Amino acid sequence: MMAEQTVAERTITLEVFRYRPEQESEPTFQTYEIPYREDWVVLDALNYIKDSVDGSLTYRWSCRMGVCGSCGMMVNGVPKLTCSTFLKDYYPHPIRIEPLANFPVARDLAIVLDDFMAKLVHVRPWIIRRQEEPLEAGEYRQTPEELDRYKHFSMCINCMLCYAACPIYGLEPEFVGPAAIALAQRYNLDSRDQGGRERMGILSTHEGIWACTLVGECTTVCPAEVDPAGAIQQAKLASALGWLRRVLVPWGNK
Amino acid sequence: MRAYSRPTEFNWWLTNRTYFFFVVRELTSVLIAAYMVFLLVLLRRLAAGPEAYAAYLRFLGSPGMLLFHLAALAAALYHSITWFRLAPMAITLRVRGRRVPGATVVAANYAAWLVVSLVVAWIVLRS
Ligand code: SF4
Ligand code: FES
């Protein structure tokens, strides 16, 4: 007999949020006791449940390596990428898994993302030129220093952990929110972009940067080190300075 | 598809340390605003003449006002310290192409605070 088979199998308990709109109007929690493996992440545990216990469990994932941003869930109340959250950090205590907070739930652990998608387009996260150069003019060049100014804001994987961590977004769903503002700021800081004023008109509103009261949790939970809280505060500073300049130098109009 | 929207719980700010510190920081603004009102009243009393001012100063010695001042001081300290801790998020300075580290930004804020306090102390204590 092989040694490892004699060892009584260790297990871990998962309390999983279930919502099946066709059969229930309120969500419930379902408890699964599954084998515990030291090298498993929460996503492995969910995959185990789906493959061997309950095929009806619904959740999103793809890359399993913190790149695609689709496996975000609340793990014991904290927004996490479940593919990089190890069971061993919770064992032997049970783990409670819920869909990302502040979003409507489509089914079980899958949230509805439409609101973010609309907001993302709204802030115009692409390079805006007053006039496009002809193709023959060649590419828009950029120095490494210029790239450095916005690079970390461009690392966003749209995982929505920051929205789930933001109490302002929970209380005021109109708030454009951390990731969308960080992406807008990424283009504002891009030396090739000329759409800063246009974008600031959208951002410098009550639903935009001024809704943020700097809780800072978005930056704490971000798995890609985007620092969305920093992006928002920098946009606030830029907007305030722009306003000051318009008031002090009205003829400047720049 | 019938999506389920979860209501925000009333006690959301007790579920996480950062939320708690944040809400307390927002609440300290009330005391700071109250202190501003106090300063305005003080100015009015001063404008109303030496007698009114002296009477107001006596009122300031009462335990209630003392308590208010201590509370306002605590609120201002809490507010400033938690803000300074967040300052590196808002201020990204570059010196010769390198980003100034967050700790330096925080230290600069404290240094500025110290300088302003010294100037105020000098003005007040000079006479
Ligand atoms: S900013 Fe960070 S936490 Fe927010 S969506 Fe992008 S990667 Fe996720
Ligand atoms: S599965 Fe892609 S980020 Fe987790």
Overall description:
The complex is a heterodimer of chains A (254) and B (127). Chain A is of the alpha+beta class and 254 residues long. Chain A has 2 domains: 2-111, Roll (Ubiquitin-like (UB roll)), CATH 3.10.20.30; 114-253, Fumarate Reductase Iron-sulfur Protein, Chain B, domain 2 (Orthogonal Bundle). Chain A contains 10 helices and 7 strands. Chain A has helices at residues 3-6, 42-53, 114-122, 144-150, 161-165, 167-171, 178-188, 196-203, 217-221, 228-248, and strands at 11-18, 28-35, 72-75, 78-81, 95-98, 105-107, 110-111. A 5-stranded mixed beta sheet of chain A has the order 2-1-5-3-4. In chain A, β3 and β4 form a beta hairpin. Chain A starts with a helix and ends in a 6-residue tail after the last helix. The mean pLDDT of chain A is 93. Chain B is mostly helical and 127 residues long. Chain B has a domain at 12-90: Fumarate reductase/succinate dehydrogenase, transmembrane subunit (3 helical TM bundles of succinate and fumarate reductases), CATH 1.20.1300. Chain B has helices at 17-47, 50-60, 63-90, 102-126, and strands spanning 94-95, 98-99. A two-stranded antiparallel ribbon of chain B has the order 1-2. The longest helix of chain B is centred in the N-terminal third of the chain and has 31 residues, at 17-47. Chain B is flat, with a radius of gyration of 21 Å. The mean pLDDT of chain B is 90. Classes of the chains: A alpha+beta (254), B mainly alpha (127). The structure holds iron/sulfur cluster and FE2/S2 (inorganic) cluster. FE2/S2 (inorganic) cluster (FES) binds at residues 61-64, 66-71, 81, 83 of chain A.
Give the total of beta strands of chain B.
Answer: 2
* Poorly predicted parts of chain A: none
What is the C-level CATH assignment of the domain at 12-90 in chain B? Mainly Alpha
What is the tally of beta strands of chain A?
7
- What's the main sheet of chain B like? 2 strands, antiparallel
CATH architecture of the domain at 12-90 in chain B: Up-down Bundle
Order of helices and strands of chain B: HHHEEH
Q: Ends of chain B: how far apart?
A: 75 Å
Contiguous helical run count of chain A: 10
Strand content of chain B: under 5%
Fraction of residues in helix of chain B: over 70%
